[in-house]
TrEMBL record:
It comes from the Bacteria. Residues 1-23 are annotated as: Disordered. This is Host cell surface-exposed lipoprotein.
Amino acid sequence: MTIWQSKLAEPRTAGTGPSRRARRSRSAAASCVAAVIVATTGCGADGGSTAQDPTAGLSDSSMSDAQKSELADKKVTAAEYEAAFQRLQACFRAAGFDVLNVSRTAYMNDFSVPDAAMQSGVYDDCYAREYGAVDTVWQLAHEDESPTNQMYKECLRKRGVEPAQKSEDVKKQMDEADLSVQDCIEMAAGGTGG
């Protein structure tokens, strides 16, 4: 089985039969989130985000009416997030594919799909129609809980800095402490960083 952390990640082998990891990994999601924020909100004069609308810039041309409805108030509840995920699974089943290895991490769904679903375009179609925008808004709203933000907080603690709660403040603290992402990765692996 070929498992993918994201569409851009290098594969690793596990189990039998072809499939790809369909959930965007936290690091891939962070990259997507950063791209969405920069592309849709820009930055304020103080370097902070001016984001007021997490749905700004998201195209609804391929979204189902249910997904559009879930985004109408510009936020996503846990019930809406799960409903969108159920529709995603139903979309795959209707196209003849199963969603595999479904689990819920601290705040997001983790799953795999057969490689054929990726190659045929079913993954892209179902994800965009039933789940993609809801997933993006949900992850943006829960960025402070992300494993990446937790790693950054631990990195700051190791440097004697009490971390803030919000991820955007943690990132500012990292800049002020002259800590790079690479420093934090090395520290998380047991090194000293920078």
